[in-house]
Design goal:
382 residues, mainly alpha, flat
């Protein structure tokens, strides 16, 4: 008589549930490790930021200027070191011209804008009092409520405390003699790094494969490919975004000055430069330009409309002409993903560094995921 088979401990449905639970647990564990790695990397970058940012700036500038150096070297038939020195000389002349022609009016408008801020606030309060007195009455009536009044006082006290703590921090960060000297030293070392980076020939990742002999051949090829893709993305993004930002700054400055916006030259150039971080310049620029257009002397809804018209024209030129011609569609990222990436990497890396690297890092991870999905996660039915 055949022995009876031992019944399974779990039924089919129970095994399915356990499998799903273990898969979900593995996924959550992987996500936790990834988040922890990003957090630790962000803290390391923040700690060594004073040492790393000059090296990073010089590296990005070298990637952007390398084709120009190679073209000068090839066209003029000169040595590479002579081409680099010639490029430095041209940059010094352009910087001197900018200091003489552009910088004085921009600094003058910046100082006048800071001085004008209290008047702008007074004009806004006067306009609200004259045209919308019911808002003030409503605010006074609600502030008479003890609960709301205590909440408002608490918010005001917290804001004052944050401000009082921020001032000493800023003074400690920027007011010390040694901190100023350290910043000047770090900034001054950038041309030195850049000089030696520009003397290097060939692709930056050409010998990378020999540095990781412990990886098997296929994985080593993928590693070198991803590193090359990241360098190419950084190079194309910053070169294109810098050209686009400067072009938009000039267009904004001209447009705002023509329509009569106060401090239009400074605001326009600042708005364009801030657009090196996607959408940052547009958001901050309009947040400053629109109230200024409405509350400045001889301002109003008509000037607000003209400012919006200038913004719409410049944004259309950027979307239809500048970006397709300069950058094309190399990142392939949806605008929503770009906005999320700016906030995510800005938080992960503690501020402006993460915001600047948001698009290149996201595009790199998208490329890495597509490579992994194609080579390692293909369905067995395919």
């Amino acid at each position: 008589m055949p022995a009876e088979s031992t019944p399974p401990i779990l039924s089919t449905s129970q095994r399915r549930v356990v499998g799903v639970a273990l898969t979900l647990l593995s996924f959550l564990g992987s996500m936790a490790l990834l988040i922890a790695a990003v957090f630790v990397l962000g803290r390391i970058l923040m700690f060594f930021s004073s040492v790393l940012w000059p090296l990073a700036v010089a590296g990005v500038l070298a990637l952007m200027l390398r084709p120009l150096v190679e073209r000068v070297e090839r066209r003029l038939g000169i040595r590479r070191v002579v081409a680099v020195v010639l490029l430095y000389g041209v940059f010094v002349l352009l910087a001197a011209g900018a200091l003489v022609l552009v910088l004085p009016p921009v600094i003058d408008q910046l100082i006048n804008f800071i001085v004008y801020l209290p008047d702008l606030w007074a004009n806004a309060l006067s306009y609200i009092s004259n045209h919308y007195p019911q808002w003030i009455t409503l605010a006074e009536r609600h502030l008479a409520n003890p609960s709301i009044r205590s909440l408002a006082d608490a918010i005001a006290n917290q804001s004052k405390a944050v401000f009082n703590h921020a001032i000493p921090s800023l003074q400690a960060a920027f007011g010390g003699v040694f901190d100023v000297l350290a910043f000047i030293t770090h900034f001054a070392i950038i041309p030195v790094y850049l000089f030696f980076f520009l003397l290097m020939r060939g692709e930056p990742t050409r010998n990378l494969g020999t540095q990781v002999p412990f990886l098997r051949v296929g994985l080593r090829e993928d590693f070198v490919f991803l590193a090359s893709e990241f360098v190419a993305i950084v190079e194309s993004f910053f070169r294109g975004q810098l050209l686009i930002g400067l072009s938009m700054g000039v267009l904004f400055a001209l447009g705002f000055s023509v329509v009569g916006l106060k401090f239009g030259l400074f605001i326009g150039l600042a708005l364009g430069i801030l657009n090196i971080v996607p959408y940052l310049g547009t958001i901050l620029g309009l947040a400053v330009a629109l109230p200024l257009a409405f509350f400045q002397p001889a301002g109003g809804w008509q000037l607000v409309g003209l400012v919006l018209l200038v913004n719409g024209i410049v944004q259309s030129i950027e979307a239809w002409f500048l970006t397709p011609k300069i950058m094309g569609h190399q990142t392939g990222l949806h605008p929503v993903m770009i906005i999320f990436a700016v906030f995510f990497w800005g938080t992960a890396f503690g501020g402006i560094l993460g915001m600047l690297l948001a698009v290149p890092l996201t595009a790199f991870f998208v490329t890495a995921w597509r490579l992994a999905k194609r080579k390692y996660f293909q369905s067995s039915d395919a």
